[in-house]
Design a protein that fits this description.
The chain is an all-alpha fold. The protein is built from five helices and no strands. The chain starts with a helix and ends with a helix.
Length: 118
């Protein structure tokens, strides 16, 4: 009985540690999904923004599943097979959605420049 509890505790601990083992990496699945959502949002903000992101949380649920896939499969592969050997990370290349309205950066660049000048 003691051995069974010890084994169960070890498996539980190992399973929990595996979720944090390779969170670093290119996050290809979740970034690809984010790029898809961004493209769809630029085409129709009501359906792909308000409806599928906020009212019916389809996009966040799929994004969460993609993040789990990144942590369990994609990131460990790229980290251990590509990035560790040369100590350079694998980056993800974004494509522009092809809309006239765009925003870049995180919105605080002017504030940072003002702080740097002071």
């Amino acid at each position: 009985m003691k051995t069974k509890k010890f084994l169960t505790a070890g498996l539980l601990l190992g399973g929990l540690l595996s979720f944090s083992a390779c969170n670093s990496g290119p996050n290809r699945l979740s970034r690809n999904w984010d790029e898809y959502v961004n493209q769809k949002y630029s085409q129709d903000s009501w359906i792909h923004g308000a409806l599928l992101q906020d009212i019916l949380p389809v996009y966040p649920i799929v994004g969460f599943a993609m993040g789990i896939g990144d942590i369990l499969a994609v990131n460990p592969y790229y980290f251990w097979t590509k990035d560790v050997q040369d100590r350079k990370g694998t980056s993800y290349t974004y494509e522009q959605p092809g809309n006239d309205k765009t925003v870049s950066g995180w919105g605080g660049e002017d504030h940072v420049e003002e702080m740097m000048e002071e």
